[in-house]
Amino acid sequence: MSTENPQAGGAAAAPLGLLPTVGAPAPERADAARNRRKILDAAARIVAEDGPDAVTMNQVAHASGIGVGTVYRRFGDVSQLLWALLDDRERQFQEAYMSGPPPLGPGAPAAERIDAFLDALVDRVGEQREILLAAHSAAPRARYHSGAYRVMHTHVALLIGRLRPGSDSTLLAHLLLAPFSPDVMHHLTAEQELSADRLKAGVRELLRLRA
Asked: How many domains does the chain have?
């Protein structure tokens, strides 16, 4: 995706092993696409129930009903499968806020879209918290150079610019996204045991302190 216009198509490149980039998946046969979907959905269920350390190729094969040989051919190893899962979930999230229904997608006022985006981001980071945290721990600054972050930042900066013309929207977008760093979210959700609803309410209150 272009980092200059988040409404445009394209691809953003970042090294494999950092946070995922978001681009169009390679064309594939219908049966191969179905198998890929089953494998990723099975891996997502295992991560949600038992964490990323519980993921094995055999377990994913069993949970998806796909032969373990096919799972290995498609993804190589567990590490590549987990990065593919992150990329898949990031692509779904990006499609929702760039072209999905309002208020997250186009068609709602900027203030409503920012609220909807931040709510969805709380859920997104919470869902993939352990994998994102592992990636962040391996390369703490990689988040800010990833295609996923650049597209999110541009999207938020554009909304802030519409909501507050003349503001330093580029800086404000960075500051608004800062609390969503995986280590901060891990501290708040796992160590402080704050619910997603409380986090969403807190972000909205913070936005309105100087409104």
From this structure: 2
